[in-house]
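#data-curation
PF: Archiving a pair of folding outputs for the training set. Convention for this channel: one message per protein, sequence first, C-alpha cells after, nothing in between. First:
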Amino acid sequence: MQRQTKEYTIANSITPVAVTSSTDATPIVVTATSHGLATGDMVVIFGHTTNVAANGIFKVVKVNANSFQLTDRHSGASVAGSGAGAGASGVMAALPKILLTSDFRSASFSLHTAGSASMTLKVALSHGKLASDADANGDAPNFGATVADTNPYTYAAIVDLEDGSTVVEGDTGIVLAGTDVNKTYEVNTNLQKYLCIFPTAWTAGSYTIKMILSTDAQ
C-alpha cells in the first residue's frame, strides 16, 4: 500500500492580538486594540481570565476598531458571559484550519514567522466529543475553550526536526523568539480525529504554518 499524503496551509501570515478586557454580558464584548476584524470573521481566543466564557472559537460582530461581540460559530447566537465578572488578558487570532486527521498517522509542519517574533503556539489533538455530547454540528471540540469531558482535547508533544531528537512537551508548546524564524516539526497524530494549532501567548510577530499529513504506509 502506497503512502498517502495531504498538504494544507493552515495559517497564512496570522498576526495575533492581545486581548485587553471583556464584558460579562450577553453578548460578550471583547476589547482588543486594532483587532482588524470584520463581521463574520472566525477567531480563537485563549488565556482570557475571569470571564472564561470568552475563550474558544467564535464568529465575531465588529463593534468598532477596538472591540467586537462574540457569537456562536454555528448558530450565530450571542455568547453569554461566565457570570464571574469582567475578563482580562489572553490572546486572539484568526482561526487556523482545523484538520480532520483520523485517516492519517503522522503530520509534519513548517512554521515561519515574519519580522521580530515572540509567541507560543500549541498543537492540540482530539478524538472528538462523546456521542452524547455531539450535536447537529458534529463532534469537533471547541479548541481554546476550557478542557472538559464534554470538550475534550489535549496538547501533543512534537519533535523538532532540526536535530530529530528534541521533543517539545505539549503543555509547554513551541516558544518562539527571534527574527524570521523558520522551523519544522513532526507530530504523531496517533489516530486522533482533529488537529488544531493556535497561539497561547503573544507579544509580537506573525506566523504561517504549512502541514503535510501522511498515512505512513510503505
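PF: Second:
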Amino acid sequence: MDYLDFILAAQKLGEPRGIPSICSAHLFVLKATFRHGLAQNTPVLVEATCNQVNQFGGYTGMTPADFVTYVHGIAAQANYPLDRLILGGDHLGPNVWQNEPTASAMQKSVKMVQAYVRAGFTKIHLDASMSLSDDPPGGLPPELIAKRTAQLAKAAEEAAPDKNRLRYVIGTEVPVPGGAFVGQETEGMHITLPEDVEQTIGMTRRFFNEQGLEAAWQRVMAVVVQPGVEFGDDFVLEFHPDLASSLSKYIEAEPHLIYEAHSTDYQTRQSLHNMVRGHFAILKVGPALTFSLREAVFALANIEKELFQADQCSNLPQVLNDAALRRPEYWMKYYRGTSEEQAFKRKYSLSDRIRYYWSDPMVQKAFGHLLNNFGNTPLPLTLLSQYLPGQYAHIRGGCLQNNAHDILMDRVMDVLEDYENACSIQ
C-alpha cells in the first residue's frame, strides 16, 4: 500500500495520521529532511512547485527530471531508501503563464504536468484556479476551474508510466504559489465553507467523468482548503479547531478524501496536532524550514566575526542582501515600506523571500567560504550558547556533533520534529 493510501485509510479509521510535505529545493533542508526521515524511519514527501520547477527550468533552473535527479542524489548520499521517497508536484497548472491566453497557457500547463509524471512524480496537485489573459475580469467560475483541472488530469493519465501510482490533489484556497501579496495575508481570509468543498468535489468529479477519467477520480485523495492558517512578515494566524470544526466534520462523510493544508509554517506543535486530528493530514511546509536555516547561518556568521579577521570572513548576510538587490523581482512586490523597512524584511521576514537567492553563484561561494572557515573544528561553547542556544543544549546533551555542518542540519530538524510529532498516531 502506498503511504499516502495508508494515511487516508488511517484517517478514515479515526487514527490521526499525517505527513509533512517538504516544499524546498535547498540542499541543506533536503539533507536534514532525509537525515531526519532515516532516524525516524518515516517516509519523506518532497514537493516542487510550478514556478520553482517546470519544463523551462523555473526559478531553480531545474526541469522536473532534473529535480528528480537532484533529490535522488541527496537521498542516496544520506543512505535514505528511494522506495520510501514520495515526490509531489504542487500547484501544477497555468499559474506561471497567467499573462498568456488560454490556448497557450493550458498547452504549456499540459506539457508541464506530463513532464512531472514522466519524471516520476506521483502526488499531483492540479490547480487551474487562476485567470488567464483572455478570461473575463473577476474570479473564474468554478465550472471552468473544474473543467481545466480535468483537462490536466487527462494529460497526466496519458503520460504516466504507471497511472495507478498517481494520487491527485484538487482545489485551492491559498495564496498563489510564492506567497501572498502585501495586504492579502489577512484581507479576505476565511475558513473554507463545507458547501464550497462539496461544490469543488462535485464539479471536478463531473468533469473527470466527462473526460472518461472515472478510474483517475478514484485516485483523487485530497482537497486543498483554507483551515484558517496563514503567516505574514511578522505574524502567524494560528489554527483554531473549533472554527474549522464544520469543515473537519464534512470530510468524514467522504470515504476517499482528506484535506491538504498549505501555509502551515510556524504553527505550534499543538496546532499541528490539532490540524492532523481535524483531517488536515497533508501539511505543507517550506519557508519555516529555510527561515530556520537562515537564522542558523546568520548566527554562524556572527560567530565567524568573533573568530576571524574581517578580511577572512564570508560576509554571507551582506552577500545574500546584495543578491536580492540585484534581482528584486522575488521580494519587491511583497515587501513594502521605506528602504530601511524593506532591508529589515529581506533579512527577517517570516515570508523568507531571501530563500530565492540561495542558488545565486555569489551566495553559494560565500556559503562555501563560511563552512570552510569552520571546517570540522568544534565551535566555542560560549559562542554557541550566545548565538545558538538550542544547538548548544543539544551538543551538551550529547545529541549533536559540534561542527557547523551538523549545527545547520539540526536547526532544520528542530522544525521537522514538530511535524513528525504531530503526524504520528497519538
